[in-house]
């Protein structure tokens, strides 16, 4: 592969697959759908170096709705990347949980990645750089912004 070519980092099991199922999220995916889907994706990927991500399991992370990482995803050997979705405007909102998620992921040998990150531009929002500092300090990958 040439240095100017792109290759996929990961495939998500699905984008926000359980956003409409808070009961299943609260009960740690009793049907084992998340890990089952990830295991199937690993079979398809075979010996590829492409990783499997969670896709922001429960949608946007915020206080009282902490479903980007649940135990089934944390302890599933077929999942490589715990994908976080969040639409906050303050670094303090990210700081309330990103370091904990990063520590949980690292303890299981997984990466944590901010996959959907909504930012605003008016004076009530912290700058992108200020918010990104929280991610950098926690060792979390971030791939882009949705404004």
Structural account:
The protein is an alpha/beta fold and 147 residues long. It has one domain (10-142): TIM Barrel. It contains 6 helices and 5 strands, in the order βααβαβααβαβ. The chain has helices spanning 22-26, 33-45, 71-74, 91-95, 98-107, 128-138, and strands spanning 10-12, 51-53, 81-86, 111-117, 141-142. The strands form 2 sheets. The chain has a 3-stranded parallel sheet. A two-stranded parallel ribbon has the order 1-2. Strand 4 (111-117), helix 6 and strand 5 (141-142) form a beta-alpha-beta unit. It starts with 9 loop residues before the first strand and ends in a 5-residue tail after the last strand.
Q: What's the order of the H and E elements?
A: EHHEHEHHEHE
Number of helices: 6
Share in helix: 25-40%
Question: Could you name the CATH class?
Answer: Alpha Beta
CATH topology: TIM Barrel
Radius of gyration: 15 Å
Q: Looking at this structure, what is the CATH superfamily? A: Glycosidases
Please give the CATH architecture.
Alpha-Beta Barrel
Q: pLDDT below 50 for ≥5 consecutive residues: which ranges?
A: none
User: Distance between the terminal alpha carbons, to the nearest Å?
Assistant: 32 Å
Average pLDDT metric: 89
Strand content range: 5-15%
Strand order of the largest sheet: 3-4-5
Task: Describe the SSE topology.
Elements: E1 10-12, H1 22-26, H2 33-45, E2 51-53, H3 71-74, E3 81-86, H4 91-95, H5 98-107, E4 111-117, H6 128-138, E5 141-142
Helix pairs in contact: 5-6
Brief characterization of the structure:
InterPro entries: GH. Helices cover 33% and strands 14% of the residues. It is α/β, with parallel strands linked by helices and 147 residues long.
């Amino acid at each position: 592969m040439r240095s100017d070519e792109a290759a996929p980092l990961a495939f998500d099991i699905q984008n926000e697959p359980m956003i409409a199922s808070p009961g299943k999220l609260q009960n740690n995916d009793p049907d084992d759908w998340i890990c089952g889907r990830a295991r199937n994706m690993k079979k398809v990927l075979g010996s590829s170096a492409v990783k499997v991500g969670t896709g922001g399991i429960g949608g946007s992370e915020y206080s009282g709705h902490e479903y980007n990482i649940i135990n089934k995803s944390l302890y599933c050997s077929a999942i490589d990347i715990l994908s976080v979705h969040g639409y906050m405007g303050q670094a303090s909102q990210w700081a309330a949980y990103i370091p904990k998620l990063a520590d949980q992921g690292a303890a299981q040998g997984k990466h944590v990645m901010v996959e959907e990150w909504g930012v605003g531009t008016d004076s009530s929002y912290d700058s992108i750089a200020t918010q990104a500092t929280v991610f950098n300090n926690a060792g979390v990958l971030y791939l882009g912004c949705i404004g």
